[in-house]
Amino acid sequence: MHRDLLGQAFAAMRHDLRKTTLTMAGMAWGIATVVLLLAYGNGFATAITNIFESFGATAVGIFPGRTSQQAGGNKAGVQVRFTNEDIDLLRNNVPLCKHVVRMSQKDSSVQNGNRTFTLPVDGLDAAVEQIWNLDMDQGRFLNDEDNERHRLFAVIGSEAKDKLFSGMPAVGQDIRVNGVQFEVVGVVKPRMQEGDDDDNRTIYIPFSSMSVLKDNHYLDGIWMDSQGLNHDRLDTTVRETLAAAHGFKSDDQRAIFVFDAQKQLAQFGIISMALKILLAFIGTLTLGIGGVGLMNMMLVSVTQRTREIGVEKALGARRRDILFQFLAEAMVITAVGGVLGIALSYLVSVSVGRLTFYSAMAKHAEAADIRLIVSPAILLVATGILAGVGVVSGMVPAMRAAKLDPIEALRYE
Question: How many Å apart are CA 184 and CA 132, to the nearest integer?
Fold first, then answer.
């Protein structure tokens, strides 16, 4: 029976091949639009994720500020200062955190031979490599032993290497930071960097060795990773812990500043999901236009084949047989148009390749551009939309054909 329906459907399609071809083209264009718009939405979400991962998607930065509320006997405007004791407090009160890192910063004069530049120098604990997702291009990163032994070792950013060494090997060479000699043990791979940001010009040294450049009793910041933690609870725990230690109110947002990359990423995730829904809706409307064309063609076909329908009913065809016959014709046109549209979307996605996004405003940011990748999930969603449009577009003409009175249909000229 199903084979007979398909045979009749293909025969009817060949009867008016030009009209059928145009209708299929409309459906193909519609489904290609749906697939490409969904692929763009997925590419946007992936680009945002790559941006955060390049800087450390699980990183949490805590920075001291000034109090804006009175607390105890202290007036507002008191400067909060972090010390090593705060590191132990956070480790004890945020136990699920993998790493807690001290940070001390200073813009310093960095020299190699007759080349001298003012570059940012960060004194850090070794675990920052995992927190900031630093990838090494040459050599190695700092380790805990370097910190414990106060070694004068340095890891330099890619632009710092270019400035100081101008293409020459850097690992194993010495540089002078404010007159103090440091040995270069590694070079970090280029990172995404906007405008005048210093990410690739930074010099990384052990936190303990920062004491030769400045008094590092007070910390400029604390970094930790928040993987697997409740981020709202994390923010509250950090504020309550440090508020108790430094005598400010835990709800004083200006006393300390907490940057949580995961919370930022979650907010962008909501935006990405809204964009995907909007694009899917726009694509569905476009496909719906093709569905209207299919419905019109099928309604004309019902009118042209009225006598044929009357003959079939006179020979014993039931309403559902006529319904399925015309619905099958609509679904065959939809299916063929869908296959052609998906093939077209693959061709376009491969031809377009990468769409400029973050690389327009940042260096080394090609990984954060938008790529139109047609995934199985996108095909599944697009197929569902296509099937729905095909059924709706085919059902109206099919029901009209099924409801025709056989006597009136036989009389139709």
Answer: 20
- For residue range 19-39, list pLDDT tens digits in order: 778 888 888 998 999 999 999
Return the pLDDT at 1: 44
- pLDDT at position 164: 93
Q: Compare 312 and 124 and report the one with higher pLDDT.
A: 124
pLDDT for res 328? 80
Contact 257, 80 (CB under 8 A): no
Tokens matching residue 405: 């009175």
Contact 225, 131 (CB under 8 A): yes
Say if residue 66 is exposed, middle or buried (CB neighbours under 10 Å; 0-12, 13-18, 19+).
middle
The token pair that represents 195 in the structure block? 């405008």
| Band (122; pLDDT cuts 50, 70, 90) | very high
pLDDT digits (tens, 9 = 90+) for 43-94: 999 888 888 888 888 889 999 998 888 766 677 788 999 999 999 899 888 8
Query: Phi/psi at 385 (nearest 5 deg)?
Result: -65, -45
Rounded CA-CA distance 94/88 in Å is 10
Q: Which amino acid is at 321?
A: D
Partner residues linked to 74 by β-bridges: 71
